[in-house]
Amino acid sequence: MIGSFMFNFKRIFPLFIIIVGVVFISYEKNKNEPVTRKVTFSSDDLAGLYLHKGIDLGKQSFYQEGIDWFKQAIALKPDFAESYLCMGNAYRYLENYDEAIESYKKVIELDPERSAAYFYLGLSYKSIGDSEQLNKQYNKLKSKNEIFALRLHELM
Questions:
Q1: 1, exposed or middle or buried, with CB in 10 Å at 0-12, 13-18, 19+?
Q2: 93, 76 in Cβ contact below 8 A?
Q3: Which of 146, 95, 144, 92 is nearest to 121 (CA)?
Q4: Model-level pTM?
Q5: How, if at all, do strands 22-27 and 34-39 pair?
Q6: Other beta carbons within 10 Å of 118
Q7: Confidence band of 6 (pLDDT split at 50, 70, 90)
Q8: Which of 54, 76, 85, 148 is 20 to 30 Å from 48 by CA-CA measure?
Q9: Is residue 69 domain-resident?
């Protein structure tokens, strides 16, 4: 019972902090009266927090929960390529390759120089047996990042 409560508390607490806002209480010098300062977050800050929450869940193999957080980050910051990349990886771990491919394509649309997107897109095409698209991603990757290109070639 206590373990279940702690597990749920750990998952809900960051959301509670984000929704309520963080209130710091400090004491002024030479006074015992608390001073309350409310910290506000921009949508970019919140998107970053959502991204990191999704990554943390992914590290624990809670991929679908992570995807939900990535989607929230994207809702706040639609051009957040990193969230699309992480969401694509989560979809790939769930073997939902169509969604992974769409996520990686969005990363490339937003940030054409992000080599990892081409690499993971190639891996996704390999997983569904589309060697033509895999080769296209490999050829694009050769001019962008030799290390990723060599690694993808090794996996072909």
A1: exposed
A2: no
A3: 92
A4: 0.73
A5: antiparallel
A6: 27
A7: very low
A8: 148
A9: yes
- 137 domain-assigned: yes
Burial 144-156 (b: 16+ CB within 10 A, else e): bbeebbeebeeee
Assess if residue 8 is contained within a domain: no
pLDDT at 16: 47
Question: How many domains does the chain divide into?
Answer: 1
Residues in the chain: 156
Q: Half-sphere exposure of 54 toward its Cβ, with a 13 Å CA cutoff?
A: 26
CB 91 within 8 A of CB 101: no
